[in-house]
Amino acid sequence: MVYKTGSFEGMKSLNQSTILNLIRLKGPISRAEIAKITKLTPPTVGGLVNELVEKNLIIEQEASKSNVGGRRPIMLSINSSAYFVIGVYAAGEVIRVVTATLDGKITFDYVQKITTLPTKSEFLSMVKESIHYVLTEHEVDKKYILGLGVAMHGLVNPDKGVAIFSPHLQLRDVPLKDELENEFNIPVMVENDVRALVIAENWFGQGQGVSDFLCLSVGRGVGSGIFINNEVYRSSFNTAGEIGHTIVDVNGPLCRCGNRGCLEACASETSILERAQEAIESGTETVLVDWTNGDKCILSTELVFKAAKEGDQLARTILEDTGKSLGIATANMINILKPSRIILEGQIFEGEDNLVIDSLQQMVNQYILTNSSEDIKVVCSKLGKKGMVLGAVALIINKVFMPGGVN
């Protein structure tokens, strides 16, 4: 991390942000060490640190020993449990609301399932009711809540806080920021779920200390988030990362967007189930016929993976093809952006001896152009099912640690 500083009054918020991040990354740390690293004068560091102590964002504790003898220095650490953040993850099947501390530890977790497609007003009511429930059950004083982050699937305008289009919910122009700020009188930030995941990975996951990486998220759909030069890339239209609608097979299956051969139509959980069901109905030999006994509701991605592990050729082919499609798309993104890491998120990437990951890695190895100095790793997210909602939390935490984030 480059610690940017300044010495005049207009740079105060930048200097304070730099000190706060330095304490977060290197704490416990003394005032003298901060002054040495940042090149700020000891009085400047002392004044800014005192303000952060008064705001209860950092705590002071005497060191256990002195390195040079004499008086033991006062060490500074982030006071992670002093404040809370509310995180909301809204997808096609679920609304998840959590409270978390500044180090990303979830202190309360509530899930409300979405069983039928709601109207815009019904959806907003569900979100508000879930947040009210969490505030009531957790008994959090609003003065200790720094903000409310929302990770929303689909196209999102983070500047206006509007969900432009949520395909799985079939909702357009949902004014989340305005509605939630009016309801709770708490600062609200809204972002696309995979871009929020990128921020969570940067703060708490496989993206820590990595300046350039790509998140590939696979569920009912396929999305990606792009992190370049220590920032999330959104584009001027706030739509960057729609890897699910890049073409991997011009003669492939029809996608919901109207095109053929989109990655989402070839390599999502939905496409896995559709291919398996079509094979069952066409009379293809597979253990899935006996396991489902003609009931579509029983068929699941877990069942397909189980069949593949038991040597079922149909299941193995479906998962290998899924990995190949994902690998081709990933290789293309690597050749264009050259991130140093690819982070895979989704249930289909879980478990050992994973056919999807093996096929994906094979395609990446075959099609990326690299030289000897490039080391591009493909890894799986360790955040698991809490990744998206932690992304919502990280939206607010990231804002607090940026210049001007401490008021």
Automatic annotation (TrEMBL):
Keyword Iron: no
Domain HTH marR-type: 14-62
Signal peptide limits: none
GO function terms (MF aspect): DNA-binding transcription factor activity
Keywords attached to this entry: Carbohydrate metabolism, Xylose metabolism
InterPro entries in alphabetical order: ATPase_NBD (IPR043129), HTH_MarR-typ (IPR000835), ROK (IPR000600), WH-like_DNA-bd_sf (IPR036388), WH_DNA-bd_sf (IPR036390)
GO terms classed as biological process: D-xylose metabolic process
Family (UniProt): Belongs to the ROK (NagC/XylR) family.
Role according to the record: Transcriptional repressor of xylose-utilizing enzymes.
Name used for this protein in its record: ROK family transcriptional regulator
